[in-house]
């Protein structure tokens, strides 16, 4: 099935019933026994591990949470570029995204009142294809407006935490 088929099928489903646009995702996390930083993550029928590098007390068996956050942003950008290129009819030969983020560990460790999150995130997108620069600039505007993970980075999201 092509991306344009997916877009049109989704448009029809949402037009028939706007409730079809509401989706929910669940991810389960479990600390790996005997470790301080290894976490097993389950998403639908998929699983992966999260860990910290040795300088942060981990065993470096996997990427850490903030690296996965950057990976989520970059991956969402690549996918959103593909969707919007198909939707707009903009030909793409390749999409490469590099995401860099800066943290100040003062906040994570509670050394001072510095916020624990990223202080700066930079996304560099390299598009290749036969379209004009203007077509790719328009594509970028659409992706920046519609990328769900970019929206998470740019805007506050109501979030609640609770002990079970």
Automatic annotation (TrEMBL):
Species of provenance: Amycolatopsis tucumanensis
Name of the protein: OsmC family protein
Listed SUPFAM superfamilies: OsmC-like
Gene3D superfamilies in UniProt: 3.30.300.20
Source superkingdom: Bacteria
Classification via InterPro entries: KH_dom-like_a/b, OsmC/Ohr_fam, OsmC/Ohr_hydroprdx_reductase, OsmC/Ohrsf
A Pfam family annotated for this UniProt entry: OsmC
């Amino acid at each position: 099935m092509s991306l344009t088929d997916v877009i049109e099928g989704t448009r029809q489903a949402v037009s028939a019933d706007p409730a079809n646009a509401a989706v929910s995702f669940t991810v389960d996390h479990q600390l790996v026994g005997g470790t301080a930083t290894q976490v097993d993550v389950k998403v639908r029928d998929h699983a992966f591990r999260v860990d910290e590098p040795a300088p942060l007390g981990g065993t470096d068996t996997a990427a850490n949470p903030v690296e996965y956050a950057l990976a989520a942003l970059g991956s969402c950008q690549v996918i959103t570029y593909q969707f919007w290129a198909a939707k707009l009819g903009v030909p793409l030969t390749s999409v490469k995204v590099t995401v860099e983020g800066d943290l100040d560990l003062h906040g994570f460790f509670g050394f001072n009142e510095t916020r624990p999150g990223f202080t700066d995130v930079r996304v560099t997108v390299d598009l290749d294809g036969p379209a004009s620069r203007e077509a790719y600039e328009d594509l970028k505007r659409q992706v920046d407006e519609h990328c769900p993970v970019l929206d998470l980075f740019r805007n506050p999201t109501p979030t609640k935490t609770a002990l079970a």
